[in-house]
Every structure is written in C-alpha cells, then in structure tokens.
Amino acid sequence: MDPFALVQDEVSIVSERLCQSIVSNVPALEQAAEYFFRPGVRGKRLRPTLLLLMSSALSDQQPAPELLLPDHRPPHERPQEQRRRQQRIAEIAELIHVASLLHDDVLDDAETRRGISSLNAQSGNKLAILAGDFLLARASVTLASLQNTEIVELLSRVLEHLVAGEVMQMSAAPEQLTSMAYYLDKTFYKTASLMANSSRAVAILGEQQPEVSDLAWQYGRHLGLAFQIVDDLLDILGSSKQLGKPALNDMRAGLATAPVLLAAEEQPGLISLIRRKFKGGSDVQYALEMVQASNGIQRAKELAAQHAQLAAQQIEALPASSSPHALAAREALINITHRVLVRSK
Amino acid sequence: MDPFALVQDEVSIVSERLCQSIVSNVPALEQAAEYFFRPGVRGKRLRPTLLLLMSSALSDQQPAPELLLPDHRPPHERPQEQRRRQQRIAEIAELIHVASLLHDDVLDDAETRRGISSLNAQSGNKLAILAGDFLLARASVTLASLQNTEIVELLSRVLEHLVAGEVMQMSAAPEQLTSMAYYLDKTFYKTASLMANSSRAVAILGEQQPEVSDLAWQYGRHLGLAFQIVDDLLDILGSSKQLGKPALNDMRAGLATAPVLLAAEEQPGLISLIRRKFKGGSDVQYALEMVQASNGIQRAKELAAQHAQLAAQQIEALPASSSPHALAAREALINITHRVLVRSK
Q1: B99 shares a domain with B12
Q2: Is A254 within a domain?
Q3: What is the domain count for chain A?
Q4: What are phi and psi of B328, to 5 degrees?
Q5: Residue span of the structural domain in which B51 resides
Q6: Is B59:B179 a contact under the CB 8 Å cutoff?
Q7: Residue A162: inside a domain, yes or no?
Q8: Does residue A125 sit in the same domain as residue A207?
Q9: In this complex, which of B134, B149, B168 lies closest to A160 when CB atoms are compared?
Q10: Interface confidence (ipTM) of the complex
Q11: CB–CB of A149 and B146 under 8 A?
C-alpha cells in the first residue's frame, strides 16, 4: 500500500489551494511565488501527505465527500469544519517549507532546485527574498484564520527554529563543529521542528488529549531526524540515480554531518579537517577515505533507523481504534518511517 | 509640549523588551538582531511612540505605575492587562519595521543605515536576511501571545503589504511608473499600512467601537502617507543638515516620487525620463531642473499637508473625553501631524 496514494486526492486539494493562495494583485510576485507550485516542480509534497495521514490516523471518521472537493474560500476566511482546518495546517506547513527553500537558495547561492533553475538564479536574489517573505505572510494570514492562538504560537516557533538552525550552521565554533549533540540540535531546528510542530497542530485541531498531541509531535520529530540523517548519508554515499557517485556537497560547503561526526570518533585525524571546514587542498577526498575506513556510515544508518523506529513506536502507542480509515492511515505513517530509510534520492 | 516626552518612559520599557526579546541561544543571531536595538542606533522610535500615544488617547485612565515598569515575561507568555497588550503592539510594530529595514538594505545593497554601517555591509547578506527573518518570527510569537486572532490577521496583512509594496516598486510597468495612483498605493503598502493596522490593533485591544478603530486606522494611514511624501521631498530638497544639498537617491535608484510625478503633469518632457528610470547620462540632473521649474514641489508639500490634516481630523473626531491624560495624548498625536511636515531629516 502506497502511503502517498491514500491521501493523494486530498493533497491535490491542498496543492490547488496553494496555487490559489498565492494569487496576488502584483503580477511579478505571483509569478515568483508560483514558481515552486507548478505541476512537475512541486516536489513530493511529503509534509502535506504526512499531515493529512496524521489527521486521519487520529480520527474515526472518513472526511465527508464535500471536504475532499476544492475549498475556494480566501485564506483569511475561517473554516469551521475540523478537516478543513487540518488541511490548512498542511497548506501552511508547505508554505513555510517552500519559503525556507527560497531563502536557503539565496543563502547558498544555489543555481538549481528540484531539477530547474532556482528562483534566485532566474529572477535575482531580491525577488527570491521577497517571494519567500510573501509566502510567510500568506502562511500567517492562513494561520490567523484558524483562530487558535496555541497553533499560531506553535507555527511561529517553527520559523524561529528554521532561522536558528541556519545560523547555528553558519556560526558554529570549532568545538561545536565536531559535536554530534550540536549537529542533532541544528537538525531538529532546520528539518524536524516543522514536521513535529505541524503534526502537533493537526492533533490539537483534532481535539486530541495532550498525550496524543505529544505522540504526534514525537512522530514528526523522529521522522524529521531520520529523514535528514538519510539525506546527509546520501550526500556521502551517492544516490542510485547518480550511479553511486557521492555529491559531497556538505563537505564542500564546510559541513560535517552525522556519518563524518561518527567516523571522527574512531578516526581522530578527521577532527582537524572538520574544524578547518575541509578547506585544505584535498581535505574532502581525504575525509571521505577516512569515513569509508570507519564505521561512521554504518553507525549513521543505525542512528537513522533508530529514529525511524522511534517514529513508528509513537504511532503504535496511539489510543486503540477500530476505524478502518484510521488504521489504514496509521499503517501508512509507519510505512513512511521505512520509506525514508530506503530512499535513494 | 514634546509629544515624544509624554510617553518617553514607556517607550524605554518597550525598547528594553525589544532587547530582551531578541535574546537567543544562538550568539551570532543575537548579535545581528541586536544591531539596530543598541542605544544610539535605535532611531526615534516613531512607531512605538505613536502607538502608546494612541493607547492613551483612547483611554480615560493613566496606566498604573506597575505597567510603566519593565515587563520581564517571555514574548510568548500572555499578558492580561490591557496596557501591557498595547505595549506589545508597539513592540511588534517596531520588530516588523526593523526586520523590513534589514531586508530592504539587502535588497538595495545599502552600505549605511542610521549613520552606521548596514548589517549586510558588516556581516554579509546571509546574516542580514536571517536576522530579519528572526525578528519576524519573534514578532509572530509575541503576536500569538495576545490571543486575538483579529490582531494576528491585521499584522500578518502588514507583512504582505510590505512585500507587495516592494515588489510593486521593483516591477512597475512603464505606465505605472508615471502614475500618481500607483505611487500612492505602493506608498500605502510600504509605509502607511504598518502604522494604520497597528493603530487599529491598539484600538481593538482598547475595546473600542469599530468606528473608533476606523479613526485610529485612518490616522495611521494618513500620517504614514504624509510622512513618506515628506521623506520623498527631502530626498529632492535636501535636508538642512546637508546644507540643502539634495540626495536624489530615489531618482538615482530609478524611482519617481510625488514631487516628480506632480511635476510631470506640467512638464511632459519628464515622462520619458521617468519611464527610462533616469538611466540616460544626465537624466537625474535634467529631471531635477524640470521639477524645480514646475509646481511639483509645492504641490507635493500641499499633498503631504492634506494628509497630515486628514490625520489630525481623525483625532478630533474621537469621542469626547474629559480625561486630562487622554486629552494630552490627543494633543500630542495632532502635534505629530505638524512635526512630520517640518522635519528636516
């Protein structure tokens, strides 16, 4: 059972609202904001998929058919129905995610994104910064429409975390560069916080008890950590599409990720390379050899698997349900914890 | 009576909270965010001053002494007292304003701001973008603490307007470049929306009737327009400090502001220069001469005066009050409408 198939139609509704919600009376802005919402460039919509599955996993009732039809209300109009409100969390999470991609690409001077030219490369840094700001503003307006200030606070904290994670990465002191704890904190801020806090928001809108909201939060947190560690592994191992050739973008950018940090525990020679951000002539190549000669890769795989397993355990700990609808969604959420481990791009 | 003196102590409390609220566990970020909150670089705190005066103008009661002492609650903790909540609007408005300055300076490649090196010039674009994002995130968290989603929506719209105004400026079509209506729309978005909507927020927190909130909104709108038109005039007339030498930064950046647009109604030769964004060899000098030969400057002064007067009229239309406290604040708000017209820097 493909977990993406289970909520595919509903994800399309959210995508359609995303395209609507960026309609603006300023054409240049609309064009820019739309850039990542075009069909084919949308990415796999992992966050909306997760969040809609979580909505189902916590509900005995299947969404009524009318809730699976497009919702044409403007972003600031308040929806009353629980499921519509949960769909808005999926929409907001994707708006924040895409905004952070736009700003990250400016920060990294990235030239491509999702297989096409990045917005900054195509239209300049200015428009990319402003388009990101615009999506964040739209996220705030939509967030306000939910009329729930606990949720406004949760999602505002995510923004703060995204920034803090990026700055932690930019400004790490030498001893922080080699610290696994620092890496995990940064990774929580940069990747897992959005998944954790938006999952909690979905549970709160589903009127769940605090214990259940905590499980949802932990699911998002552990899945996010597993996801990012695998991402970092792929940068070193290479994706299958690229015939196993590693990209090594992280090391080239001066970043030591989980496999390297774990390797350094066995290969102290790595420490000085990490601290000088792999800036010496053949540092990257030399570091790669030391990583390959260690158990760093194996241990990073195990770490990702642990987090994936912890994510799955949160779902298993949810209150018992006899609803086939909820059970299918739970199975899909567990399935996703396996999928993040075996993905190859 | 100096209107700034009337709420000076309370503005200091807001300033202190601003410094507190940017405390972060990421030192590089704190340093960056703090950049514009240091004493001496704070600017005149126009927005907090306005908003605290508006709070007083709409209240019969002087704030209790304990509300004029610093408030050490974290930004997400909910204050119950009405005046504290209004102080938070002053704080949020300043956070949004400074965030927009940080992003604007990146967009404009500005080298200085408020007499010191700009953050982007000193620490790079990355940190300046992230510091701006961080202040916006802090503004959202503080906003959420007010537990009033109407106000979350008002201030989220301001963000959207700031972006829309900037993009309107960047992407104007040739016929829009010469349109006074387009200029005024853009100016509302870029400058007046924050003043208008935060004034309304203060009135709403003061539990005022919708008619009164509308007056507060119109006050902010007209004051913001007057303020910006005078700013644009000073760029052409020169400030007294600069011995009357015009800066002409706007024209050099390709922008035609109110005096130029009004001059063009008499001097059709200006139109082609505006449309080519003053990019020809001596366009700026030539345009300046045409403006000086027209009534553009006089008419722009009159336009600013009209908006200042309309702002003052909103205050005069407020419900009668016998509170000396409220009356002094109202007088100060009217005084500010005069001051924006005669300022020279």
Answers
A1: yes
A2: yes
A3: 2
A4: -65, -40
A5: 1-147
A6: no
A7: no
A8: no
A9: B134
A10: 0.82
A11: yes
